[in-house]
Amino acid sequence: MLGRPTGRIDARDIVTGRAKYAGDLAVPGAVPTVVARPTTINGTLAGLDASAARAMPGVLGVVTIPSGVAVLAETFDQALRARDALRTSWHPGPVAALSDADIRKRLRDAHAPFLVPPLLTQYVDGEFDFAFVNHAPMEVLTAVADVRPNRAELWFAAQTPVVAQQTIAAALDLPQDAVTVHVVRGGGSFGRRLFYDAALEAARISRAAGRPVKLMWTRNDDMRHGRMRPATHHRIRATYGLGQVLSYEHRVATVRTDFGHGLGEALTAASFQLQVAGLSVAQAFFLLSQSNPYDVGVPTQVLAEVPLEIPTGSWRSVYSGTVRAADEIMVDELARRLGQDPVAFRRARVRDTAGRAVLDTVARAGRWGRAMPPGQAQGVGYHAENGGRVAYLVELDAAEPTQPRVTKAVIAADLGTVINPTGLEAQLTGALIDGISVILQAGNHIDRGTVREGSYGDFHYARQKHSPPVVEIHLLPTGGPPGGAGELGVPAACAAVANAYARATGTGPRSFPINF
């Protein structure tokens, strides 16, 4: 089977609706449940009049939990109608006074300005902002819970089921072995289901109501009260002389990522020694996971966390998705400043022959440097992580700058022994769509403590019309240990799209998504 293109054995079930998710389960007695939530992020209940909702047809109960007011009914339609009939008032959440501009300022203030460089030292500075981004999995969060006085049983999609079991047991004051977690198929995740918010809520609702519940978060619930990739600010300075990069300093400021809810134990174990040195879990993970693949003289990377009470989580590629994207944009600018071709600049400085082979392949297959019509350009990005290397070359049409379109993508990857080429190609293609989305158009605004976007209608993730008509993928048959592909492609794809846009428009975009 190794190396043979193989489709998913359950693909037909997925696309025809036969696959079963948490919302499809028929757990005896579990009733449809939804939650009324605060008007601002992490707000709390101030007042409740549920009399009208309780009197509505099909309503089986109304209970309060720390995150809101739960409504139980015979159908989801009845539960949603009753939820809308609740008369509620809310205390504002801890970030109710903040909007995007305030958050960006706090991020920029997290690091001191660069010092004035020594006399006669040449340098390039860059500052970049990346917005919050929702995970937006196709399947909304759903969990079934049956909590009794001495035991609990739950069904939900989970990437960290053991940590979820431990946390839910503690919240219910039950021993861990009294909580049973059934891991159900997930309809998309991208890091979202590392966090088990819906399952914890369902357990609390079931205990308060004294009956099994099937809790559904609506799309609006997860957009406005779920977890997002944190907003980040990047300050980069590279010094150079005699055609060489002498130093490269990258300062990252991020809204604090909630690794403690879902990933804390795993990351604590992996980064214990660094934590002993006084670093947080996030700072330790950042240092362990981030590295510049180029010879750029003396490299320095620093992470500062801004402790805002905003639900955050590990979006696909975690730190690399913004850190390495910013690096790759700076690489293009350094190459331009030194009068060098961007691919040749990377090839001369990448630290291993495998990286050079990947760059050579994508440049040759993508006809790097070919003449393009006005308003169109090529862009390239490279990344190495988790035992793999990848380069993306995209062609982008920005004749209308507010409606840019990636028209072609060529991808070259070296991941050692390829287990399943079909699955690998799907991962690399998905990363391309992620890069197109978060660089050009998809993000979340914060307006006075509230997430502006509430659905796919205003969260502008790439649609079919935004995907390139031509995608070529070249897998280098190098052998050796298999590398990881699930997170590898996002930084390179993001950078390729950003660099193509910059070349096509003659601009240097600094805030992403560009059309926000």
Number of helices: 15
Low-confidence stretches: 268-272
Main sheet: strands, sense, barrel: 7 strands, mixed
Portion in helices: 25-40%
Strand order of the largest sheet: 3-4-1-11-8-9-10
Number of strands: 22
Beta-strand share of residues? 25-35%
Instruction: Please identify which CATH superfamily of the largest domain we are dealing with.
Output: Aldehyde oxidase/xanthine dehydrogenase, molybdopterin binding domain
**Class per helix and strand makeup:** alpha+beta
Mean pLDDT: 93
> Which second-level CATH architecture of the largest domain applies?
2-Layer Sandwich
What is the approximate shape?
A: globular
Question: Rg from C-alpha positions?
Answer: 24 Å
- Total discrete domains: 2
* CATH topology tier name of the largest domain: Aldehyde Oxidoreductase, domain 4
CATH level 1 class label of the largest domain: Alpha Beta
